[in-house]
Amino acid sequence: MPRRTAFLYTDDFLAYNLGGKHPLQQTRLQMVHRLIGAYGLYSPDGPVDWITPQSATDDEIALVHMPEFIEAVQRASRADEAPVSVSYLKQYGLGPGDTPAFPHMYEAAALYAGGTIDAARLVLSGDYGAAFNVAGGLHHAHPDRASGFCTFNDLAMGIHTLLQGGCERVAYIDIDAHHGDGVQDCFYDDGRVLTVSLHQSPELLVNGRAFFPGTGMPREIGVGDGEGTSINVPLYPYTDDMVWHAAFDAVVPRAVERFAPDAYVLQLGADAHFQDPLTHLQLTSQGWMEAVAKLLALADGKPVVVTGGGGYNIRTVARLWTMVQAMCAGVALPDTVPASYDAMYNIPRLQDTELPRIDAKIRDEAHAYAASQVEEL
Question: What is the mean pLDDT of residues 186-195?
Fold first, then answer.
């Protein structure tokens, strides 16, 4: 049955611009917004309310990030007026590199963060069962530095908003191909927050290179009050739908049941899809959406904040995140994309028509590796 959901979006999200050659191209967010509109989900009788987000305040950002880092982002934002040294920016993870500084970076990152804070407030109000900040999911940002395309950790701010709003226990579940290291870092000693991440293993080299960010092994379980509340499931680089779901089913439902959260924050990075250019997991759109369905079923009846995250094949992102919004609203979309949208973006269907071919030996290796990681947990 359709249920009321919110979609947080503004064209101002496109101001988070890391450069024309950077893998993170935020036109993907506009593509999602337009595809949702093309399907008519925003119509007066539709189940999705399109809401323009507000920027996070300085105080909200300071709940997560250290003053020196916040100042560095502010200075980077004004570098065209008052130049700052490369060495100064580098110590805070600000370019050149994965997260290059750009004019008005602070304002752009604050708007992203505000979208997830707004999503948390919307679901706390009881007016919405789920709220999706399509620009959120910047899970690599740490309290003291930017990392991996991420400046401010909107997810941590959203979790703090839920805790301040009366939730005693919040479950954060991350299916991005990369480990959610920044969120884990923010709550590593906090027993009120369960962090679960399924991701490509950092210890298995691909073409001689370790996988970013180099963390996310089962031994990372939390410390102090948070001991046992960090759960990591690293996966073989060529893990397919079947192996991925076997690992998910062995870990996530039981962890959530034992933790008994009052609310959920979902990071739904689309880069675990087999067509992503930066990663090596082999999920199909069908398998990936099955994961989303399982997460929403686990969270049924509880407030759910949904965010995007990674995803560097922009056509794949447009398809998957549109289906996420529809699934949150309880709506089944026709697989054939509206003709006007297809003509604009060359996306004829939502679901994959070509599937990856996984060698039986690789599947066996992936299955054995996943089983060993689950056993270690």
Answer: 98
Is 140 catalytic? The answer is yes
The pLDDT, as a whole number, for residue 129 is 95
Distance CA 12, CA 109 (A): 11
| Beta-sheet pairing, 263-267 with 130-133 | unpaired
At 2, is the pLDDT very low, low, confident or very high (cuts 50, 70, 90)? low
Q: What is the pLDDT of residues 152-166, one digit of tens each?
A: 999 999 999 999 999
Q: Which of 33, 65, 139, 140 is flagged as catalytic?
A: 140
SS3 161: helix
Write down the pTM of the prediction: 0.97
